[in-house]
Amino acid sequence: MFKKPLGGLKTSAPLRGSERRKLKQRVVSAFEISSEDGDLLVPDGIQSVKFTTHLEEPGVAYLAPDGNPLWFTLGKGSEDLIPTVYSLWKRRDLLPVISTPAAVIPILVGGADLMIPGVVHHTPGVKQDQLVSILQVNKSNEVPTLAAPFAVGRMALPGDQLGQGTQGKGKAVFVLHTWKDHLWDLGSKGDVPQPIPLNPAPEKVPAHSSDEPPKDESPTKETPTDELANLTIEPSNMPAVTGSSYNPQEISSLLHTSLLQVISSTIPSSAFPIPATLFYTNYILPSRPAFPALVVPHSGRTPPDASPCPSASEITIKSSTHKSLTAFLKNEEKAGLITIKVQKHSNQTDLVITSVNAKHPSVDGHRLYATLKDIEITAAKKAKREEKAREEVGGSGEVLVMELWKPHQATVALFERMGGDISKQYTMAELKATVNSYIAANSLVNLREQAYINLDEPLIDCISSKVKRKTKDDGGAQAPLEFMRRDELMKQIADRMQNWYEISDGKEVVRRKGELKPIQVVMKVRQGRKVSTLISGFEPFLVLNAEDMAEDLRKACAGATSISPIHGKPAGAGMEVMVQGKQSQAVMEYLTGKGIPKKWIETHDLSGKK
Fold it and tell me: In whole angstroms, what is the distance from residue 538 CA to residue 595 CA?
């Protein structure tokens, strides 16, 4: 959720006394804690700041006086408070617990959700959509310890459906916030607290008569969940653990492994020679392991939360035994992995890489791993998919727009032939499914070109209905249609159907006949040299009206606004909101904030000014 920097951050504002008391009461009631704990988690001087995620989802963060985020909400007007890692470090039993193996933790910190096989223990009775904290239980010592929580999320399914962790498939927890994400970065970035011991609760001894010996009781097998339920947290005032780092020898080993990763990948021979600094920054650094602890074991004391120590970004030449790039590259040349050359020009000498040895035994034995570049590429692709899905659905999930097509005129006969319902409004997916079924049933796919469809008489009659064939009087007859690309055929059929659309804002669903046009945001010069931004065509989208829009934009843009009928259009064509100045970006943010998909907003700059 917070893999990328927060947007729209403004100066935090302290809560008034009454607002702070209301927030405290919400926390005490929602999480069933004492008033003293409420003061700890909602201290005097707490501040609030609004933000938007990289998916443009609005939210509010509540910060302690020292700047540590303690709570946050997601969604417009949401009252659902979610504790941050900083709050969970103050009160570890605030949420039900999910524990996971050490190897899974860096993956979750990288932005993934927790899968069912990754669950080792869970608090009994946890419900679907319930908030949980994620941590690692360390049993390496005689006394098991509970690491500090490093993530918070919502259960994807009830706890009783988790079963044994290795047997299920699918997601167990939708992760909302983790240690070292960009929300965490707003705070002091303090050290991870030391784990606290977990002691079994005292066993209940059954009462027996003094004259009657105790009966033999068959031992019962304790499940991991029962084991977690029977453990009690013993408070500790031990100091926080300082995150340990790799030693210089281990850093050198990680850089050597990164070089092997580079050589294992395909570098075209035409790329050489490569200056040493570019080779280091463009090849070696991006090839560092995303999770170093899984590549080179750490010789020091690993923190109980099994976080990658250090982070991949801390693996640099300066931290290694070589201390300089030249020393590192000469050492690798001596090992036979690369060939380097010193080039002299003017008064300077540059080191260049002339070749790499892809047939070296170390390269053959190298096992590929997830690199920083891989993680960045994957995150970028996922963000792009999420952005595309968000644009198709709506800016904040409030407005759903669905385009529909109904058989009309020439297409009625085609749909009757295909066995379709001529009174139904079809989505594009349903339309494609109906036409594709007809194509498959009549074997109309062109044998030579699979992307083309052989047209039979019903298809020809449909798509030719509005295309007047040339006659001799027109200068010659047009060649008869025989085949057409599948996507073009779909477009031709849809163009001859009647347009409908359906809009839903979560409260009301409206279906109307006609083609839905995007909202127009036009910047043009009016009244001399003054540029104004005009918004029109917003009435069909349910969540917008001219009066509220004008007032909201007046405040957001700090400029004059007005409402009038659309200039040059007949009466009843709709209203037009005018905002003083070039305000297309502010208008776009306002409309998407109302839930309008970007697909349904068009901007035009007709002002001729930059």
Answer: 12
* Parallel/antiparallel/unpaired status of strands 601-605 and 519-525: parallel
For residue 150, count CB atoms less than 10 angstroms from its CB and return exposed for 0-12, middle for 13-18, buried for 19 or more.
Answer: buried
For 414, phi then psi, to 5°, come to -65, -45
Q: 171: which residues sit within 8 A by CB, 6+ positions away? A: 113, 114, 115, 116, 156, 157
Which residues pair with residue 406 across a beta bridge? 498
Cα(500)–Cα(420) distance, integer angstroms: 17
Cα-Cα-Cα-Cα dihedral sign, residues 11, 14, 20, 22: negative
**Residue 189 to residues 44, 182, 489, 514, Cα–Cα distance (Å):** 21, 11, 58, 55
pLDDT at 139: 59
**105, 307 Cβ separation under 8 angstroms:** yes
- Tell me which residue has tokens 């560092």: 288
Distance CA 156, CA 146 (A): 23
Task: Name the more confident of 481 and 264.
Answer: 264
514, 499 Cβ separation under 8 angstroms: yes
Q: What is the distance between the alpha carbons of residues 407 and 203, in angstroms, rounded to a whole number? A: 73
- Which tens digit of pLDDT belongs to each residue from 11-49? 777 888 888 999 999 999 899 888 888 999 999 889 999
Radius of gyration of the chain (CA): 32
CA dihedral 308, 312, 318, 323 (to 10 degrees): 90
The closest of 178, 171, 182, 179 to 113, measured between CA atoms, is: 171
Instruction: Please give the Cα distance from 264 to 267 (Å, whole number).
Output: 9
